[in-house]
Each structure stands twice: as C-alpha cells, then as structure tokens.
Design brief:
The complex is a heterodimer.
Chain A: E1 5-13, E2 19-27, E3 33-39, H1 47-58, E4 61-66, H2 78-87, H3 93-108, E5 113-122, H4 124-135, E6 140-144, E7 175-180, H5 188-200, E8 205-210, H6 227-244
Parallel strand pairs in A: 3-4, 3-5, 5-6, 6-7, 7-8
Antiparallel strand pairs in A: 1-2, 2-4
Helix pairs in contact in A: 3-4
Chain B: E1 6-17, E2 20-32, E3 42-48, E4 57-62, H1 64-80
Antiparallel strand pairs in B: 1-2, 2-3, 3-4
Classes of the chains: A alpha/beta, B alpha+beta.
Amino acid sequence: MYDAMMAETINITGYGGDHIEAYLARPLGPGPFGGVVVIHHMPGYDEETKEITRKFAVHGYAAICPNLYTREAPGASPDDAAAAARALGGVPDEQLVGDVLGAVTFLRAQPNSNGKAGTIGYCSGGRQSFLAACSLPLDAAVDCYGAFIVGVPPEGMPLKVGPIVDLAKDLSCPLLGLFGADDRHPSPDEVAELEKALAAAGKVFEFHSYEGAGHAFFAVNRPAYRPEAAKDGWQKIWDFYGRYLAS
Amino acid sequence: MCTYLTEKVEVDGSGKGASGWFALSEATVYFDHPQHAAAEHTLNIDFRNPGQGPSARVAVELTAESARALAAAIEATLASAPPGLA
C-alpha cells in the first residue's frame, strides 16, 4: 500500500479574512480522503499537537492544525504564544469558529478530498471542537475532555469562555466524547449533563469515560498521560472517523 | 484538569529572557498545566512586556509547595529589609 505523506506549514484564510498559520499533514495517494481539523490545546500549537496532526495523515486523513494564536504572537515559540494569548483572555469563540471554517474550507477544496471534514480538539480545544460542530456544517466531531461546555467558569476568570451546552440542539454531526473519570473540568456530572442535552436534542453521539484517567490523558509528554486510556481512545477515534469521515 | 485560573498584575522591574535583559510591565500568575515541569499542575508565572512582543517573557513553573515557599521567602525578605528601603 502506498503510504507516503507530507507535512508542512502553510497559510490559510481564517476569521475576518486574516491569514493564519496552519500545519498541514496529508497522505500523498490519490484518495479520496476525509479531512480533520485538529484544534490544539491551550498550551498552544506545539510539537506534540503537530505529531497528532501527522498521525491522522498516517491513518489516511488530510489533517490541518490552525495556529489559533497566530494573531497574538506571529512567529513566536508556542509557549510564548500561549502565554500571550492567555494574558489577553484566550481565543474568542467567534474567532475560533471563523478559523475552523477557514481550515474546513481549505480541506474540502483539495482535489483528493472526499468532501467530508471533521474536528478534534483537546482540553480547551475539546470545547472548541463542540462549538465548531454546533456552528458549522461538519461530518464528525471529537471532544477530548473539553471543559466549560457545561458549567460556569470560576468567578473572576479572565478567559472568554462560557457554557455552550445550549448549542447542543445545533450540533451538525455525530459527536464522539472522550473523558477521564478523574477529571474535574469537565467533571463526570458535567459530562452527564452534556450527554443529557444531546439525548434530549436527538443527536447522534457516543461518550466514553476512562477510570484511572484524568484530564489530558492523551498527552504523551505530560505526567497526565494514561497509555491504556489513550490507546483505547485512539481506537475509538479511528472507528468513529472510519464510519463518518472516511467513506 | 485545566484550571484556566489566571491573575494578572502590573509589575515594575526587569527580567532576563532569551535575548537578554528587558523592562517588565506585567506578570500573569496561574495554576495550570506546565509546559516543561514534570508535574500535572504547577504555579506558573510569566513576567512579560507585551510591548516588546510575545518573546519578551521570563517564565517559571513551580510545584505548589515550592511556590508557597517562594512567596514566603519574598515576604520574609521584604519584611527584613532596612526600614524605608522596601
């Protein structure tokens, strides 16, 4: 089987017509391939998230990770950019949706695209993956332990995030949720509340919570990494995207 | 978990970053995942000068225990400075 792939930094058009940096990893075969927008976690557009992006290409998806902090910190190292974005209050929801739309439009326009596109996001990106899937016509979305879809952030928190569970009725595609049972943001109760809202809205979704895992269990470079949960989580992702994005 | 908790304070002083010394204008203090420290959560401080770009930053990531010890040491040092100096 021909398995060549290519990964490179490109520019795409994001929210407000802004040119933003993005990391693209794609199989070089004729396709057709589904597309995945990888939404990076709050610590930024880092090496590990780029590795995740390449992993999707290895598995037969054209994947793109927009640098959500391009505007605040063009050319800065990912950690400096994350610090700058945090100090400014994080990425506004409207801007996030516009940037994901730019990435989805780019993916669907590729000659070897099958026309389908989905999202996956980790940590703050999990919430943003849900937000994008409730705001844009997508084919599949994965939320990995996104906090504050349900629940009000702590008082005085300067970040511009609020609960968006009310958007569940607008979800445009099937949703896969992967959570750690020991996580407190989102807590098991908050996950259950989101599940309830999705069921009430008649949406297609599947949630999995892993015992012995907390927040960020996919993060291979952090002490939170839980290999068993991560391995099973990846399998769930391949099954889910296989059903909704690949064909 | 991501705590997202962030405090921002104005600071007056200098810091030494990757490109040498620069004037500081603010510090953000947060308890969240570290970039580098081998702990799930750390007390992180970014001493910054946004006017000089995002790379004008001195960052530390401390375990909760060492952050408390540092805070106490700062208070103790200031308290023991000769009257009128601090």
